[in-house]
Amino acid sequence: MTITNKDKLIIFDTTLRDGEQSPGVTLTVNEKIEIAKQLSRLGVDILEAGFPVASQGDFDAVQRIANEVGPLMVGREAIGKPITIAGLARAVPADIQRCYDAIANAPLKRIHTFLATSDIHLEHKLKITRDECVKRAVAAVTFARTLVTDVEFSPEDAGRSDQDFLCTVLSAVIEAGATTLNIPDTVGYNMPEEYGSMIKYLITNTKGSDKVIWSAHCHNDLGLATANTLSGICNGIRQVEVTINGIGERAGNTAMEEVVMAVHTHPDFFPVYHTINTTLFFRISQLVSSLSGMVVQPNKAIVGANAFLHESGIHQDGVLKNKQTYEIISPETVGANTANLVLGKHSGRAAFRSRLQELGFGELTEEEFQVAFNSFKTLADSKKRVTEQDLIALLSDQVSSSAGENTTYTIKSLQVVSGTSFATATVQLQNTQTGDVLIDAAIGKSGPIEAVFLAIQRLVGKKIRLLKFDITAVGQGVDALGQVSVKIAEGSASGASSDNEDSITETENKNAGLNEATYHGHGADSDIIQAATKAYLNAINRLIANESKRILGERKVDV
Amino acid sequence: MTITNKDKLIIFDTTLRDGEQSPGVTLTVNEKIEIAKQLSRLGVDILEAGFPVASQGDFDAVQRIANEVGPLMVGREAIGKPITIAGLARAVPADIQRCYDAIANAPLKRIHTFLATSDIHLEHKLKITRDECVKRAVAAVTFARTLVTDVEFSPEDAGRSDQDFLCTVLSAVIEAGATTLNIPDTVGYNMPEEYGSMIKYLITNTKGSDKVIWSAHCHNDLGLATANTLSGICNGIRQVEVTINGIGERAGNTAMEEVVMAVHTHPDFFPVYHTINTTLFFRISQLVSSLSGMVVQPNKAIVGANAFLHESGIHQDGVLKNKQTYEIISPETVGANTANLVLGKHSGRAAFRSRLQELGFGELTEEEFQVAFNSFKTLADSKKRVTEQDLIALLSDQVSSSAGENTTYTIKSLQVVSGTSFATATVQLQNTQTGDVLIDAAIGKSGPIEAVFLAIQRLVGKKIRLLKFDITAVGQGVDALGQVSVKIAEGSASGASSDNEDSITETENKNAGLNEATYHGHGADSDIIQAATKAYLNAINRLIANESKRILGERKVDV
């Protein structure tokens, strides 16, 4: 890369914070750490690991990421420093202190504090005046600077805020010591031209604007997050807040892969360069999709399954004659060759270990490696070619159900009979704590998966509501790995539990409005019924683990 | 809607042409007609129905759409005229004549002819000079105007063409009688500013530019199709070429719902108004997704399952206090309330019929209605609430397997035994042509679905390769409808058939490069194994139907 007279584009990834706010997505600590490691290898500059005050679970996750991923240098040799760990905090001292406590051990750390500045938010949500808003913002930044040197401030709903008032707030927080100012288009309403003009206006009219980094944070409600972010870059933005696959609330956040590849393919158009290892995009996209259960549509730009496939004869002919006629990015640039044969049933431990290293799963313990190798062997037995996609799915499955979390029940055996009438399932579970082996059967009117779920409910002696059930096929062919993700809650349909005494605030808890714990489970198998069974039991084990914690007097944990 | 001093934005839908070029998507004629009817109700101005010269199947589909959908006025009362049926044609007389023959019976019709104008395409693909390019374009438009009054011309790869040469070509085709000029960014490379500037430059420097409608056709390779199209509108574009869900080759085309809703939510920003019935967006999005097998990711703007869901406590609180804090579009505006209860097991024929009418499936024959009602009753028996989403999935299923296509085999019964070891399936089929009932069993190493597919292969006596296998769950809960779509070809893995004597040209056939027929099948059922069985048999019936046609001496048909 030849770099002259250009600024570096700083990549601030918020997959684990804003991305994890996608409806139905709940990542466990192990899952978050795996994603964080991959983001570090990818070359992300700043990783927003969570919102520590939201729950004990969020705090623990941010702390473990700060401790375990904060110091890593693997894949970052060229960048020369580890990833910065950021935590989110409202503009109140308790949030900021809690955020600092979570990130304290990271070699590089940032506190990201925010406060709404639009009149509609001040009036209806915060019920404060503009003056109080400025005071609160300054106080928050001042306090954060007593803890760390790297402080980011975001005026929430900047897109609908009065621009001159925004300049007042921003000038004040720069003076208070903020080092990065982030301008969110919280509701995804701006047109690219409008967003770019707003950035230009703010940079021109904010006192001390040349002392800070300006950052863009766009939402995709009208499908314009990438365009708005790029328009920002043309007008002075040097940090972009993005997520892998563009996941996030509603229609999501800006997709990292789209912004980076736009800059990558237009070196003369943008005043910035990037230091992301683009060849890892496809893999990390699949990992995030597996663990979050958020499907990537085939026509998704850059990382969709079809992104590099040419169907029509005219295009195929063009590509054969000269690649440039229809290709602006080669699939290799983003690592989109994961359907390649990687391993077969005769592949040994050495080959398997070397593939894992390539995929960034090189740091498994010997025990974890053995579990992964056994799963691989079982899979290789039932399908001829084990692809990179399959391995990522298998390993995601292992991360989701891995040690360090309590596994109360494991499957001993499963038998299903189904057909054109009712389905019957017989399930045998082992309780790993007591050693008991339980067996029972149930019928399902809607097919074998319902039968399995009902049999498991009988065995664990709980009423479970299924809130979400997603199936996707990884790879092609009948032996494609089926991936199932489920979300459950305890209780029967009408009886939502209302014990919210553990909530940290009345309204700011992640599940406010519902006030009940939900549990996510994930399973992968070439047999779709077994994948569903694994996912369901995975979620139930999490529910049981959380119950024991609560009995032991811990705070409510968002699992 | 108050309309003053604004031009109407003309919506040109190409879901059935460029959208159907998505890898792995092949729609049957019945499926295309169903989508076309819904597009007409939606208020689309021009419907590109296909590329008639590509195959006999394409020709037949365009002709039936011209005949059956061309005259419809349902839902178009406010627009005052039926939908214009367009067909695509290369800039050669045979294509243009064939296109005219297909659309001839539509009350309003358009020929859309195209020719590449970038040097890279002229040199490497067409191997002609710039002078020859102008001559060929003028000749094509002149000939098309002898057949119809409405002629659109597209300079392919305009984004990388020399702009002055483009003006020369465009001035010449205006003089030859073109009424719409469409400027494609074929490879999705342009930045919004660049695309807008190009449009402005072309309109300023093309002779007679005020006599024609200027049209945008953008691709989404960098995630910027919507932004480029909108930038075009700000610079003089008055027709947009779009698809539902943004489906299309590689990363797809511009999504209609995104462009229309950007205009809808920014009445003061854009110099245009639209006449689309936005409340139908969600339904038609689901219909296209079901029939094409192209999944819509949950974080897709406007039509994604999460597009209107708020997860974080802060946002939920904001929404409860004042909807406007986080909502720029109400779910009702785009019809995103399909999870509502619509029908239960006690609902009768009248209620069912009235729901079908609301969903735009009101024109079923009495026989088709009876089949649909029976499927509904079966479903209602296994789940409490039958939602709008379920009905769309059921009806899509019926469209896919409906009468008018030969159904050789039907399922008599199915029995599956599976579990922690091998799966076994016993399948009983009836051959509707001979009346024979066949039964056989097979085992599947990868689970029950493989066992079913292998048993069916034995029964029909064919080697089938499975090229694609997708599962999605419609709705939530364990009784969600499973939708399976498969793509198959005849032969064992290595033996791709090479008889391409029926290809219309050496390189332009849709399956050029593969030269083999592929068949798509679709099935929906709350039992995932039954859904897979239906999909597989649906595809096999199409394969068999096509074989009989070929034996009867017909041309190769893209099914």
TrEMBL record, chains A, B:
Pathway: Amino-acid biosynthesis; L-leucine biosynthesis; L-leucine from 3-methyl-2-oxobutanoate: step 1/4. Its EC number is 2.3.3.13. One of its GO terms (biological process) is L-leucine biosynthetic process. GO terms for molecular function: 2-isopropylmalate synthase activity; metal ion binding; methylthioalkylmalate synthase activity. Residues 9-282 form the Pyruvate carboxyltransferase domain. InterPro entries: 2-IPM_HCS-like, 2-isopropylmalate_synth_dimer, AIPM/Hcit_synth_CS, Aldolase_TIM, LeuA/HCS_post-cat, LeuA_allosteric_dom_sf, LeuA_bact_synth, PYR_CT. Keywords: Amino-acid biosynthesis, Branched-chain amino acid biosynthesis, Leucine biosynthesis, Metal-binding, Transferase. It is an enzyme of class 2 (transferase). The keyword Amino-acid biosynthesis applies. CDD domains: DRE_TIM_IPMS (cd07940). The keyword Metal-binding applies. Belongs to the alpha-IPM synthase/homocitrate synthase family. LeuA type 1 subfamily. This is 2-isopropylmalate synthase. It comes from Linnemannia hyalina.
